[in-house]
Amino acid sequence: MPASALLKQHLGVHYPTVTHGEGVFLFDDEGRRYLDGAGGAMTASIGHGVREVAEAMREQAARVAFSYRTQFTNGPAEELARRLTALAPGDLDHAFFVNSGSEATEFAIRAAVGHWRERGRPHKVKVLGRELSYHGMTLGSLSMSGHAARRPDYGSLLHPFPVAPPAHAFRFARPGESEEAYAARAAEAFEREIVAADPGTVAAIIVEPIVGAAGGVLVPPSGYLRRLREICDRLEVLLILDEVITGLGRTGAWFASETEGVVPDLLAVGKGLSAGYTPMAAVLLRTHLVEAIASGSGVAPFGHTFSGNPLGAATCLAVLDHLEAHAVLDNAVERGAQLAAGLRRLAAAHPFVADVRGRGLLWGFEFVRDARTGHPPDPAHQAAAVFVRLCFAEGLIVYPAGIAPLNNAVMLAPPLTIREDEVELLLELLGAALNGMR
Ligand code: PLP
């Protein structure tokens, strides 16, 4: 018998056993405490061990945990859809629930392609993404992802959708080219990819408003997403925004698209929707998509067994209540400013750290050979992976990001409820780990 029957990500690595969590901290069975500076994977946005959420889950489980969506609707799912669509920008007035971010972006493909079928244009089936992007692990979502490291050879199971350049001026701008000029060029390149693919065959493009794991928090200059919206409208292509990381307060706004003044046709959320208390994600759809179904087949055949189950929805409602009752988004803005200032101080003291970037409580920085040149580090040094291990040894969880050799980055996404003294502690631990990199 093996020591453990559980297949883990890295065989041969010892994983401590988590026993409980409280606020921004996790604890293991050897009594060690970890500051959860990444919310696990940008997920635990209201912290650990929130009693009201546990209580809401207990109450709902005792009443009815599961009912099937083609047989019943249920109160919590109806209420969650109502509240999410009320928070969302524009006429994103409909919600469909799934169980993970991957299922959400995968749903978005099916809904986008299905939309054009309903409108009598069945040849529009391609979905274009960008390099340095990640939309999930299911084969459809991976097909749209520009993440070579997570795309080993699955042969014909992965669709070779074209990818456009990312809006990542720090790495890709020409010498002397401004961030705005580079982003405009990247948007034009996106348009050229759509035209080359033939807009008559393109259902949608998909973009993370702020790139997460594939880039390490790549924030485009204001106007870039609006330009993509304009290109999509002109070429009759749907715009899918993947807000699996950025949605539900991570950037200090309910949605990053709201800050950018852009209403996508489909908007995917995950992670922060349940804050990690249950596997749950959603796609919000604009009215015109649902009208096309209503005046066409009348069927939205996109769901899963657990889609919109009452227990999951009640959990997310309790999370939403917590976010609203404690003005958590305001805290994200204030503590985000504190974290950013501290990160910039640390970068100034460590020449191999560059391009501190982010919004709200989603921050990243890049490891470089030298901040003056910005050249990426030797991939063999695995700077981000080494740093993550050093942080872990200090009792701090951070998230490795980026795709070597293009970039090598780290993400910070602590619970949005983090306190001022806890941000200081986070910075102290980061500083100690950075000192260990010398
Ligand atoms: N989209 C983005 C932007 C993500 O960061 C992730 C996960 O990290 C996903 C989709 C996939 O979500 P999940 O891991 O819940 O399937």
From TrEMBL:
Keywords: Aminotransferase, Pyridoxal phosphate, Transferase
InterPro entries linked: Aminotrans_3 (IPR005814), Aminotrans_3_PPA_site (IPR049704), PyrdxlP-dep_Trfase (IPR015424), PyrdxlP-dep_Trfase_major (IPR015421), PyrdxlP-dep_Trfase_small (IPR015422)
Cofactor: pyridoxal 5'-phosphate
Alphabetical list of CDD domains matching this protein: OAT_like
UniProt-listed PROSITE patterns: AA_TRANSFER_CLASS_3
GO molecular function annotations of the record: pyridoxal phosphate binding; transaminase activity
PANTHER family xrefs: AMINOTRANSFERASE (PTHR43094), AMINOTRANSFERASE CLASS-III (PTHR43094:SF1)
Family named by the database record: Belongs to the class-III pyridoxal-phosphate-dependent aminotransferase family.
Identification of the protein by name: Aminotransferase class III-fold pyridoxal phosphate-dependent enzyme
Protein source organism: Leucobacter weissii
